[in-house]
């Protein structure tokens, strides 16, 4: 016969077991909800890519992530080029080939879709139910080249053009060939890729489809650095030569310029793009600020270090130089701003880089705003023709809605 003490112990054990189960169930439920909220999307390798010579720097298969559309958006498509800089010599490309920037072997097999890629109507009101595709970046040249490097010990594949075509060929029978509406987008190096492939994308789709393109932080300027050297131009010239990009630059652009390689820069090629285009950029883009305007080679004594970390630490002279960078971007977009009837523009004064993929900058209660309009609202108004969307922010430091990158 069990004692009162033994019965209490059994009861306590059962209670603890039930509490533990409830606790683990709660944790699992929270994790499951978080996973759903984060919208994790699995990677798809392109199986026929190798036969087309469409491989990453290391020879691995290219990849994308597809989150299927639903409801009214089931036949609409949004393709987003991933960003991630460039490699413009053999050494940097060899290093890149052993990372997620040059090989799908090192990439996360699940990607979080947020911002413009979100499937949540309250977070992405205009594109949430479209087929949304993230194209992984592994060629190191904004999907623009087609060549290779090899010697007795090393092989590097510069096959961005082929990767782009292989992914499109893989997506067409999955419904892209029946698209009603489509948007080709990208961030940073991926934003630059949209300039190269915008019209080609349009030609791929049904003539009845509404096709437009969006570049986020991809309007890289042909700008001199603070020591008056052409750091950006030299960097991209080496990239063009290494990866065989020259023959793929817009022929109308290259034939019109004394220096054809300049057509790698959007300010020269934009005028020749026929597809409606939207340019989203910060006029103080932090990547260009840190690498093109004030690269380490132009600031050997670290005079700009504090200014790069925190804009409020910039001296009056440094602010003057940054305002000069802003002025150049505005000058280079003057024609587009004034004469493009189908183009859209959103230039804010945030120290930022890539604002469409992050939920907090794309569409959130405290998102950056210009004329009280979020980036998501501006892009949506432009795409669907609800409103003319060409907005330019006032100069720093007037905008108190900015999410500045401090690094």
Description:
It is a single chain. The chain is built from 13 helices and twelve strands. The protein has a single domain (38-392), classed as Rossmann fold (3-Layer(aba) Sandwich), CATH 3.40.50. The longest helix has 35 residues, at 4-38. The chain has a ten-stranded mixed beta sheet with strand order 4-1-2-5-3-8-9-10-11-12, with helices on both faces. Strands 6-7 form a two-stranded antiparallel sheet. The radius of gyration is 24 Å and the shape is globular. The N and C termini lie far apart (70 Å). Helices cover 34% and strands 15% of the residues.
Looking at how many chains there are and whether they match, the oligomeric state comes to: single chain
The helix content is: 25-40%
Gross morphology is: globular
**CATH fold node name:** Rossmann fold
Task: Tell me the domain tally.
Answer: 1
Task: Bin the strand percentage.
Answer: 5-15%
Outline the biggest β-sheet.
10 strands, mixed
Order of helices and strands: HEEEHEEEEHEHEHHHEHHHHEHHE
